[in-house]
Amino acid sequence: MAEATFGGGCFWCTEAIFQRLTGVTHVEPGYSGGTTDRPSYEAVCQGTTGHAEVIRIEYDPAAIEYGSLLEIFFQTHDPTTLNRQGADVGTQYRSVIFYHDDAQKAEAESFVRQLGESDAFSSPIVTEISPLINYFPAEDYHRNYFASHPTQSYCAAVIAPKVNKFRQKFAAKLKEGGA
């Protein structure tokens, strides 16, 4: 098993996407990259801790490669907006890859370089690539948030369309039944 940690805006959205992938065994929302020990959701939302909302993914590299996780990460959020994803604004919503080792760092840097050279996006990529530091799991009520609250307004208006688009684009990578 291996781990990857990404921040692409609200962790409710990114969790809902990555937990549907074949080869992903666990997705945990959390906070990383800040200076405060054990920050609360409220403190992170205020933007004063330096943490980003992230997901920590456990996956089987024999079933899904890190490069595939990077591809999905970049195609399911906007890596060209600094400290913003849609209506979510602040450093806590920044686009960030927290690498776990030098191999992940090199692969992420190469992937971003290739995206930039291919003009995959109309604006420059601003995704931060940093070592995993000060990671803390989010409070329990954030886990499986979309699955537990599908009719909540944010879930219905923001997450559901994103998940549906993801399902269409990456159907071949979904767990059996589209989980």
TrEMBL record:
Superkingdom assignment: Bacteria
Name of the top EC class for this enzyme: oxidoreductase
Residue ranges occupied by any Peptide methionine sulphoxide reductase MsrA domain in the UniProt entry: 3-155
Active site: C10
Gene Ontology molecular functions: L-methionine:thioredoxin-disulfide S-oxidoreductase activity; peptide-methionine (S)-S-oxide reductase activity
Record keywords, A-Z: Oxidoreductase
UniProt cross-references to InterPro entries, sorted A to Z: Met_Sox_Rdtase_MsrA_dom, Met_Sox_Rdtase_MsrA_sf
Reaction catalysed by this enzyme: L-methionyl-[protein] + [thioredoxin]-disulfide + H2O = L-methionyl-(S)-S-oxide-[protein] + [thioredoxin]-dithiol; [thioredoxin]-disulfide + L-methionine + H2O = L-methionine (S)-S-oxide + [thioredoxin]-dithiol
Family in the record: Belongs to the MsrA Met sulfoxide reductase family.
Function: Has an important function as a repair enzyme for proteins that have been inactivated by oxidation. Catalyzes the reversible oxidation-reduction of methionine sulfoxide in proteins to methionine.
Entry protein name: Peptide methionine sulfoxide reductase MsrA
Phylogenetic placement of the source organism: Bacteria, Pseudomonadati, Planctomycetota, Planctomycetia, Pirellulales
